[in-house]
Structure formats: C-alpha cells, structure tokens
Amino acid sequence: MRIYDIIKRKRDGFSLSKEEIEYFINGYTDGKIPDYQIASLLMAIFLNKMNDKETLYLTRAMVESGEKVDLSSIKGIKIDKHSTGGVGDSITLVLGPMIAACEVPFVKMSGRGLGHSGGTLDKLESINNFKVDISKEDFIQNTNKINISICSQTTNITPADKKLYALRDVTATVDNISLISSSIMSKKLAVNSNGIILDVKVGSGAFMKDLKEAKNLARTMVNIGKNYGRDTIAIVTNMDQPLGKAIGNNLEVKEAIETLKGKGPKDLLELALILGSKSLVLAKEVQTEKEGRKVLEEAINSGKAYNKFIELVKYQYGDIKEIENPDLFPRAKYIIEVNSKKEGFIKKINAEEIGKCALKLGAGRETLETEIDLSAGIILNKKVDDYINLDETLAYIHTNDKIKGEEVKEQILDIYIIGKKNIKDQKLILDEIY
Q: Is pTM beyond 0.85 here?
C-alpha cells in the first residue's frame, strides 16, 4: 500500500477502505508519512467529502492511535458532554454539578479554549489553586466519591487528531463535516463513558453558521457514537446571541454559581435543564425528560447542585472560599458602563462580534501560547427582546486596560441593534437528534 495511491483514489472521488484509512493515520502518527502528502490527502477529502463508513473508519483509527481511558471502575452509567463552542458558553460548569447532584456520574476531559474566551479548563483555573491536571487515578476516585470530575486530556489521547488538526488549521481544510465530527468524537470515544450528550451551537457566535450544516454535523456525530456502541444525543442550540450574560473566565464562573443557586440567567438555566433531563434519561436515572427536569429543579432548589460544585472545587484543590464568596475573585481594574444612545427593543446582538470584544480585552487567546486575563470580559445587562431606555446600561466592560476598554465600548454600541420588537421570539433549541 502506498500513500500516493490513497491520495489519487480520493482525488478521483473514490471511497477509502478501512485499511487505507488506518494506513495513512498510523503512518502519519508514526512520522513515516510527511506533512505535504497528508496535506494533499486532506484537501482531496475536503473537496470530495467522505461517506458515513469512511467517517466512522477515520474516527476509529484516530481513537486507536493513542491511549484509551478505561472508566469501568466508576460505578453507574457515566455521562460525558461536548459543546462545539460559543460565546459565554459556561454550560459545563452548571450542567455537570446538576447531573452529579442527581447521583449520576459526570465525567469530562476537556481541552483549552482558542478564540473568544477561555475553554472550560481556563474558567475552572480562574478559581484559585484549582487543578485540571489530575491523574487518571484521581479522576476515577473523585468520580466514585462525588460523581463528578473535569480535567485536562492526557497527552496520549488521539495523537493522530492533534497532528491532523494542526495541519488542517494551516491548509484551509478545517470546515469539513467528516473531519470535524471525527476530530470531536475520537476524543469523546477514547474516554469510555456510557452516554454522550452533544451541544451543537449554530449562529453568529458559533463555529457553525448555517443551520443545515449544523444539523448535518450533529447527525454525523450521533451516528458515529451509536455505531461505536455509545448512547448519543445531539441538541442543536442557538448562538446568535451569547448564552447567559457573562463573557470572560471568572465572570462566567460567578454566573455559574448564581445559576446553580437558581438565580442565574434564564437561558443558561433552561439549557442546563434541557441537556440535564436528557442526560438523566440516558443514565436510566429517570424514565422521562419531564421527570428528569423535576429532579434537576429539586437539586437546585435544595442547594444540592451548588454544594456539588463546591465538592468539585474542593476535590480538585481549589479555594472554596471564592465559591462561597464570589467577591473574593480577582476583579478587573476598570469597570466601564456602556450606556445606550437609543431607546427601544434589543433586536439583535451579534455574538461573534461580542466575542471578539472579549478577546480584545484579553479574555480569550489567539494562539495556544497566549496568556489569558482571567478577570477580563463583558457582562451584558440587556439581551435580545429586552427594552432599553435612553442612557440605560447595555453592558459592563471588565478590563485592566482602560484604552482597550474605551475602544470596546464604542464597538458594543455598534453591535447592539435597537429598534422595534422582533415579530418572533428567539428559539433556544433548534433541533434534537437521536
């Protein structure tokens, strides 16, 4: 078998066999096939696409390229979750403790955020002393003790994906459903959970901008999960405006704490209840989503979900004083109010542009080496369909750089579109795929 022949076959529109896919994945991971040939193959895949079988073979080969995390020693039906990313997407910090408070193990290995704001790990690390780099043994022991553990991925999980993604990023071959879905699902499937819930974001602030393509991605990932023997559900959710009101690392942690107490933004809590109720059904903890929602609401109202977050922080060496008193979190030097120059209803907030503003303030990273300002970010005071008076506050900018803060203030005034009330209410859930 030769890589030249595999490239030629895909260039000419033929499907690749399981053996051909394993050959190029193993050869590239081992360093036997050079970048330039894999770059050529990636472009052929990008242009001619892959069918469902090829996508499954690719995912399987990437899973087999590295270490697999055996979680069989964790009691119960284990639930994992993945979001394709958005602006103000702190859902894991709310959902995980809620599920764990209902006696269902929540296990998640995350990567670093790249873009608008930090990822789940960056947000957790904004808690003083919180450790995301814990051993596999601690990950398993903690989950058995408190039903939740969230940590960084081990370096040996899906090395093929790490190499492929780095190459896709510089060869304009990222936006391909098979390559995206196999990248996401290989990392999920290398961790041996029982059920996977996927939050596929679509809209201005999401990786996926087109609803049809987002549904296609969701369907492809669900098929991969099921073909791998994992119970998998995907929910397609709206990211045309930020989720919740906070964008920025410790700002989102504080918002998650309020939400776990039942006092957070309605959309963040609602999405957590929807994803959580489906998770409890997957875990066979309840028979119906309606029953699951009731159990989750009780976990919030009783304080169990909030207490579970405290346990997570404690077991991963974080400072629970910050959770009990969020005023102890480091604050940005400047808090700048953005006051409206118009009155009327908020018609639109471009989530991507708000995300770029947060990135400019230092809340996100442009490269993996960028150092994040964990106290920087934006708090939205008004969201779509809210009414705003003249000179009323639209948002608060948290920054340690006053000049950048003033620049972002002018940008936010342009991002908010104010006028007559929208005819239709914005939907949070756009599709569900089983």
A: yes
